[in-house]
Amino acid sequence: MLSRSVTSGISYEYTDEIFKNPSTVLIHSRTVVEKNDFVSTGLLSYAEGDILEIEIPEYKVFELGDSVKLTVYSAGGIFTFQSTVVAKDEGSLIVINPPQNRQRFIEKRSNPRIEVSEKGTIHKLIRLDTNEKQPLSKAVGLTVQNISVSGLGFTVRDEFDLGHDSVVDAELDLGFSFPCVCEVIRREKIEGGYYYGAQYVQLASDKANSLRAYVLKKQVEAHFSKKNLEMIKRTFK
């Protein structure tokens, strides 16, 4: 039985089947892509995190930044939403997967984390009870292991232990200066140091926008890198 709903500007037509992870519901779905007076049909070949990939013959007609309307004919039904072209590859488009889609398809993380290797420094510790900042006598270096728009995972050397429930005032080098205040919510001893999982406490709106762009760029790069590696493996198999 088909039914229809509208959620946050996205319209859905779906069967009694419950939507699951995009990788099991959306992959290999016929997808209509529209912009202005042009319409083309392709195949949705990738759905993870903030991005979707549509294999489409007329990919050259689309430009980066184009606003597009997508209609996906999936195993779970038909749904339509607006998106933006953020990258192109030979024979395919990469578009943004809106947050509403990720929530609808029940992803494990509302904000997917990507693996990176970036440097940064901790300048101050902040007391939770008084919000008092305690400058460090010497800035402590850190390495960002993974990052999302809501938090990050980083490592520090063995002789510096933040402990649980610490709040740090840090500055990350993401190709641009990214100051942030983070609360440690996870701590793990590793060889040569400590690994910390943290979430942002204070993030200026302009920095949040820069971070979203950075995370999206890294997701696209990681996808293309994996795709090229798989192509090489098939070639020499």
TrEMBL record:
PilZ domain location: 108-216
Gene3D superfamilies named among the record's database cross-references: predicted glycosyltransferase like domains
InterPro entries for the chain: PilZ_domain (IPR009875)
One Pfam family this sequence matches: PilZ
Protein name: PilZ domain-containing protein
